[in-house]
Amino acid sequence: MPLRQLQQAGVALTIGTDVGAGPSCSVLKTLADAVRVQQLLREPLSPLQAFYMATLGAARALQLESCIGNFKVGKEADFLVLDLEATPELAERMVQVESLEELLGLLILLGDDRLVVEVNVQGRALMRNGALIVSAGDTKREF
Predict the structure, then answer these.
(1) pLDDT tens for residues 106-139?
(2) From CA 27, how far away is CA 107, in angstroms rounded?
(3) How far apart are CA 26 and CA 6, in angstroms?
């Protein structure tokens, strides 16, 4: 995809996993694929730009930034909680991280679904440590 050319033409672009257009529903794998493809095309996509395109940039592309895209008070919150030490390689590299850009790059290139500790939809945990959480009144059960 000619990313820069499309951006310069004003096309609203995003990175997502819910349309079945790629081989994975993993946001980390999809981000890694996007970064690698852009490198092959000699149009590098920085980790910061990749995460932006998958979060607030996606909300803006869909004209939903007033509702979603970041953690501001009053917005809907669909998000993952990640364990930055879930794999030995990532844990070892995290000790040496010196910037947000580097941290996001490591998550993109070394991260996978093993990092996902919790899945939240509209601010409510639906899955924790691989177990589905179901609310029944005030009681929560894990499966």
Answers:
(1) 999 999 989 999 999 988 899 999 888 866 554 5
(2) 11
(3) 25
Closest of 44, 48, 9, 51 to residue 30, by C-alpha: 51
Closest CA to 30 of 18, 17, 41, 48: 17
Separation CA 57–CA 51 (nearest Å): 8
Contact of 55 with 47, CB cutoff 8 Å: no
DSSP structural state of residue 20: S
CA-closest candidate to residue 28, choices 92, 107, 129: 107
For residue 110, what is the DSSP state?
Answer: H
Determine the average pLDDT of the residues in 77-89. 94
Residue 16 pLDDT exceeds 90: no
Report the b/e string of 52-65 with b at 16+ CB within 10 A.
bbbbebbbbbeeeb
From CA 116, how far away is CA 80, in angstroms rounded? 6
> Residue 123: what pLDDT?
86
Q: Could you give the 3-state DSSP secondary structure of residue 79?
A: strand
Residue 134 structure tokens: 């179901």
